[in-house]
Queue: 2 jobs
Job 1
Amino acid sequence: MVSINSQAILLVDGYNIIGTWHSLKCIRDKNGLEHARESLIESLVNYTGYKGLESKIVFDSHYQKTPSYEEKLNQKLSVYYTSYTETADTYIEKFCASFPRRNPETDTRIIVATSDQAQRHTVVGYGAEWLSAHALEKEIDFTKNKNKRNFRPQQKSRGRFLFNSLDSKTQQALTQMRFGS
């Protein structure tokens, strides 16, 4: 697995990931492509926020005659929609080709997440690293589970009944109502 840290730029081939992850394919098939895109974006918002990783999700224009545009979601994550004449693959490959080779001062790396084997070989040829769609999914799930474990509230268990989690005044009022006193 590729080591991901804050000195990397993660480029995600959006529709390739949607077509590869089982959960996103189910969302796409049941609720439409827009919902699958939103779910992928939400996963990456949380993941990049936790990792402090600069990321860009790239989507094809999907046969719509629109100019390209970029939507900045936060300081570390943006979504790029290609123009009608450009594919996500082309945009990612151009990005990798034009990125300065490892700057000795920053040592920033590019990681491309896709399961498109032709794109994999092309971007690796430009010096980028490759991360399969499944490996990205595992990394996101691992990070999500780790994050849940780290932020679980450390409350003392009061038992399994709702009554035990109520304050004493409310408990007393309910007891009075129950016994009619």
Note: The chain has a mean pLDDT of 83.
Job 2
Amino acid sequence: MGPDAGGQADRRIELGRIGGPHGVRGWVRIGSDTEPPENILRYRPWLVGDVEMVVAEGRRQGKALVARLVGCDERDAAAALTGKIIAVRRRQLPPPRPDEFYWADLEGLAVATPDGVALGTVSHLFATGANDVIVVAGERERLVPFLWGQVVQDIDFAQRRIVVDWDPDF
């Protein structure tokens, strides 16, 4: 799978959210969904709402992350960004290794059983304490555990399909 999986290099990938102002000089608190959280500071530019913004500097502040964005020089400007999603374009992510993929690359793939029974398409994924879960939207929504080899049998990006060992009635 290449870095342009599914031909969606310009697709927005959410990486976090701006939590609010930090201090009076335009810094903002950052909620990061990257692992480790500091990785969010490496991406440039960010898409904040519909605006491209560049991180001028960022750091860990206690248990939180804070950043100063170019053009955001005072508290009111920082406050105006509160709650905005931080995203990047898919092409900004480093290419995954051959045995890896990004969750975002699974979104929109068809999901079927080994017998070819269509269950729907991947809406999104989420993490739980035990395992990750694939949300499959079809005639109804299904929550399918992402357990490689047990439930998830195959991911074929060329065919844009995931095969899951899952009872269609469940």
Note: The chain has two domains: 5-92, 107-164.
